[in-house]
Amino acid sequence: MSVELIVFDMAGTTVHDSDNVHEALISALARFGHTINREHANSVMGIPKPVAIHTLLTTTLHLTPSAQDIDAIFQEFGTIMRHHYTTSPDVRPTPSAERTLRTLRTLGIKVALNTGFSSDITQIIIDRLQWQDVVDGWVSADQVPEGRPHPDMIQFLMHTFGITDPAQVAKVGDTPADLHEGTNASCGWVIGLTSGSHTRTELEAHPHTHLVDDLWDVVQAISSHPASKLTAGN
To answer: Cα separations (Å) of 120 from 83, 86, 126, 158?
Structure first.
């Protein structure tokens, strides 16, 4: 069965990230007197940031935060991220990202982005990279009832493009949350990128059809193989 839609993650997958998201989470929590490290931050990569903050406070730090506590930290995180994506000279596509996205579109495949960021931050990134004509669409976690690992964002994009069979959809990302999102959406391809926030060994433990070291490998995976049975994490 052919692929009709590919949904790519943003930070760490298609958008260069030098632990900027990790550092923003660490800094936002520190602003309110909470200390976490990179490993803690990495454990919540890919999921909606309010949920990530709640998880870090409750599961990692064993606190009982109020909704106001979570919102205040989330607002601080957003401020840091908006400043980064608006001003940092490091904001750029990951290697092979634009070539991959453009090539897939020439093959007649719809190419979309999804992210755990809020929609205002997503729009800043799209505008900064001038990707309005590079991808067919995008969706943020705050535009659907549930973010990753739930399938809502993928289903939103499927509806947008009139695709009814998830076996014709591929999901690509660099976090376990991406892989579980694709699996929960019953995507025909669930592809983990090993050069982002998580290593190949870390991603191998989670359900996937392919693991690739470079985004350009996605073109080969899609063009050479039919939808595959999930491996690992089952």
So the answer is: 12, 11, 10, 22
Q: Model-level pTM?
A: 0.92
Structure tokens at 78: 């957003």
Reference 203, options 90, 70, 45, 2; nearest CA is 45
CB count within 10 Å of CB 105 equals: 16
152: left (phi over 0), alpha (psi -120 to 50) or beta: alpha
Confidence band of 229 (pLDDT split at 50, 70, 90): low
> pLDDT digit string (tens) for 106-125?
999 999 999 999 999 999 99
CATH ID of 5-17+92-224, from 1.10.10.10, 3.90.280.10, 2.60.40.350, 3.40.50.1000: 3.40.50.1000
**From the centroid of its chain, how far is CA 93?**
14
Backbone dihedral angles phi then psi of residue 140, each to the nearest 5 degrees = -110, 160
